[in-house]
Amino acid sequence: MIHLVMKLNALLFLLAGVLSPAAVKAQLKIGFYNKTCPTAEQIVQQTVAAAFRNNSQVAPGLIRMSFHDCFVRGCDGSVLIDSTSNNTAEKDAPPNNPSLHGFEVIDAAKAAVEAKCPNIVSCADIIAFAARDSINLSGNFSYNVPAGRRDGRISTAAEANANLPSPLSNATKLINAFAAKNLTADDMVTLSGAHTIGVSHCSSFTNRLYNFSSTSQTDPTLSLAYARLLQSVCPANSSASANTTVFMDLITPTKLDNAYYVGLQLSLGLFTSDQALLTQANLSAAVKENARDPGGWENRFKTAMVKMGSIQVLTGTQGEIRKNCRVINSGSLESPLEVFDNVHGEEFLREEIELDNQINSRANEKLASHFCAHHIYIKLCRQLALISELKCILPEPFP
Ligand code: HEM
Ligand SMILES: *[C@@H]1O[C@H](CO)[C@@H](O)[C@H](O)[C@H]1NC(C)=O
Ligand SMILES: *[C@@H]1O[C@H](CO)[C@@H](O)[C@H](O)[C@H]1NC(C)=O
Ligand SMILES: *[C@@H]1O[C@H](CO)[C@@H](O)[C@H](O)[C@H]1NC(C)=O
Ligand SMILES: *[C@@H]1O[C@H](CO)[C@@H](O)[C@H](O)[C@H]1NC(C)=O
Ligand SMILES: *[C@@H]1O[C@H](CO)[C@@H](O)[C@H](O)[C@H]1NC(C)=O
Ligand SMILES: *[C@@H]1O[C@H](CO)[C@@H](O)[C@H](O)[C@H]1NC(C)=O
Ligand SMILES: *[C@@H]1O[C@H](CO)[C@@H](O)[C@H](O)[C@H]1NC(C)=O
Ligand SMILES: *[C@@H]1O[C@H](CO)[C@@H](O)[C@H](O)[C@H]1NC(C)=O
Ligand SMILES: *[C@@H]1O[C@H](CO)[C@@H](O)[C@H](O)[C@H]1NC(C)=O
Ligand SMILES: *[C@@H]1O[C@H](CO)[C@@H](O)[C@H](O)[C@H]1NC(C)=O
Ligand SMILES: *[C@@H]1O[C@H](CO)[C@@H](O)[C@H](O)[C@H]1NC(C)=O
Predict the structure, then answer these.
(1) Major place of localization (predicted)?
(2) Can you give the pLDDT at residue 17?
């Protein structure tokens, strides 16, 4: 046995000598934790599913988190790192704070995974698994996630500001932002379909509602009925609506499907950057095709998520396996955090079982808290019925 290992080592040494460093660089692999932590993906899936049962909005939060992790320093979990006294981290840059959410779900998944196999599974991989699981839960389709990412040790707000595209972007800026990550214009249109679920704060689209141009108060490429309703939900100059959010896909707000593209063609795209997908013939052809063929979009979306998930990844011995996803490792191998994580992990699994038992009583609470959003939604549907043949579907069971 020892002999065989020595032979293997010698062989690897020889190979390393022959091949260039780039060629030996480890690749992401499906089933990367098969041997070292066989239940890792299952534990993440169970954690995300439990969080989703409590609050289905965690799904869009985690899908967006994967995008924001990968576009800043690659998919290295840097979006999870907390700011410190001498560093403002990515998560506190305006494109992330206060809108990016779901960090507690990643913490819970990490704690549960650490309880089973300490120091093995990276935070970067947990984000990629959690995004896949969120897609499965909200869209009922799934894909294999190549893994083996390592965690980065750097996270700055300045890099988040520089790399994350703004909702005010035109098509040229969007294409360039994706090209900077080796993603094509087609990938950009395909991935924008993620705006089929989730919500946005008023500040991301009020540019289209007030004082738009010298000739028009509202953006003329936005449905006027929709603009009026958005104005009623997001008043001008109002700090009171700082925390107000609206659904981004009016047709099926909580289902991950191709309705985003259908809405775009009905002037229901929410951001300037959504509308921008109709401003170049090449892009709008892709929008039309995605609206026409849901299965085709699903397949392209899965492929594009894997592609996005491989941007500038750290592998092999690069980076580290962070113990606490919010804090870079201190350098010492024996960290007191390990003990904390194990306790925390078991605690979470207990809570998960309790959550199952409580689900019926929680369902009522959830309906009550969502009543307001549904009320606005129904109003919006009535208004939209004036301008289109859209059949409005209620996002969740409604009394
Ligand atoms: C094409 C360039 C993109 C721009 C300019 C953009 C911009 C935005 C903005 C401004 C929001 C709303 C934030 C808020 O105000 O609360 C948002 C939400 C969201 N974005 Fe994007 N995005 C882009 C691409 C993507 C991609 C590639 C994905 C994932 C594959 C994605 C997934 C999401 C999701 C799921 C939400 C909803 C988040 C939630 O409900 O919390 N976006 N996006
Ligand atoms: C892990 O197991 C799956 C299923 O048996 C297999 O498809 C995959 O290639 C394996 N991955 C690795 C890295 O061993
Ligand atoms: C359930 O969701 C609510 C928000 O809707 C959140 O405040 C709470 O912490 C969540 N509970 C669990 C156990 O995840
Ligand atoms: C920031 O402070 C931490 C200790 O809190 C230190 O380890 C780190 O080197 C400092 N970073 C910089 C860039 O000064
Ligand atoms: C997708 O979700 C279904 C349940 O909705 C589950 O049975 C299946 O294992 C999930 N697939 C993956 C890859 O997690
Ligand atoms: C989810 O997709 C599977 C096929 O992949 C299908 O059999 C099942 O009925 C779907 N579930 C829902 C709730 O649509
Ligand atoms: C797109 O936006 C950039 C920067 O905001 C601007 O320089 C450029 O002229 C715009 N392109 C078009 C076609 O409007
Ligand atoms: C894009 O591809 C080029 C050529 O392979 C490579 O040098 C560069 O690092 C890649 N950029 C990113 C962000 O992956
Ligand atoms: C645009 O055109 C190029 C070739 O001219 C093509 O490769 C690409 O798929 C088209 N679609 C998009 C969305 O860029
Ligand atoms: C509206 O926009 C014009 C320029 O287009 C600007 O001069 C004016 O101050 C703006 N008014 C308000 C109320 O923001
Ligand atoms: C918003 O504030 C500007 C001045 O800051 C004012 O001119 C404008 O009328 C206000 N708009 C509304 C709708 O109150
Ligand atoms: C928005 O939320 C923050 C954080 O929860 C809170 O401090 C602030 O008062 C809220 N603002 C409004 C206008 O509700």
Answers:
(1) secreted
(2) 35
Q: 138 CA distance to ligand 5 centroid (A)?
A: 11
pLDDT in tens, 354-380: 443 343 333 333 333 333 355 555 556
165 marked as part of a ligand binding site: yes
**Mean pLDDT in residue range 70-88:** 98
Q: What was the pLDDT predicted at 378?
A: 58
Q: Which CATH architecture has domain 29-198+248-309?
A: Orthogonal Bundle (1.10)
CA of 35 to the centre of ligand 11 (A): 62
Burial class of residue 99 in the structure, from the number of CB atoms within 10 Å of its CB (0-12 exposed, 13-18 middle, 19+ buried): middle
Q: Known catalytic residue: 68?
A: yes
Helices (H), the chain: 2-18, 21-24, 40-54, 58-70, 103-116, 123-139, 157-163, 171-179, 185-192, 224-233, 259-265, 272-275, 281-292, 294-308, 337-385
pTM metric for this prediction = 0.86
